[in-house]
Amino acid sequence: MQPRISIITICYNAASTIPRTLRSVSAQTYPNIQYLIIDGASKDNTLELVRELAPEAEVYSERDKGIYDAMNKGLDRATGDYVWYVNAGDALASPTTVEDLVRATCTGDSLPDVL
């Protein structure tokens, strides 16, 4: 069973930190990832970087009431069996991070409740 993993990146005016995040998520070898970018209506070139470095991402840019509001917006749009927040400036350790996590925890016919 290959569960769908929704990765959500919350950002606002993150042009200086988001490239590392985008590259690490886009480089993942696991095939069943939904990547959501929830942007708080950035005024810098964050969105241009997102479109360039993570063209596969679903991008939503609108004003919000802070990080927790943005996180809830992402959660509402997530379609995965699991949700993982990887915020601007964070990065996954290697291109196989998601694949390794799924392989180590999702064995058999049922999925664990929490990864």
N-to-C terminal Cα separation, in Å? 15 Å
Q: Which residues sit in consecutive blocks of at least 5 with pLDDT less than 50?
A: none
Q: State the helix count.
A: 4
Radius of gyration: 14 Å
Name the CATH homologous superfamily.
Spore Coat Polysaccharide Biosynthesis Protein SpsA, Chain A
If you had to describe this structure to a student in words, what would you say it looks like?
The structure is a single chain. With 115 residues, the chain is of the alpha/beta class. The protein has a single domain (5-105), classed as Spore Coat Polysaccharide Biosynthesis Protein SpsA, Chain A. The protein is 32% helix and 19% strand. It has 4 helices and 4 strands. It has helices spanning 18-26, 46-53, 67-77, 97-105, and strands at 5-11, 33-39, 58-61, 82-85. The chain has a 4-stranded parallel sheet with strand order 3-2-1-4, sandwiched between helices. α1 links the parallel β1 (5-11) and β2 (33-39). α1 (18-26) packs parallel to α2.
SSE layout:
Layout: E1 5-11, H1 18-26, E2 33-39, H2 46-53, E3 58-61, H3 67-77, E4 82-85, H4 97-105
Parallel strand pairs: 1-2, 1-4, 2-3
Helix pairs in contact: 1-2
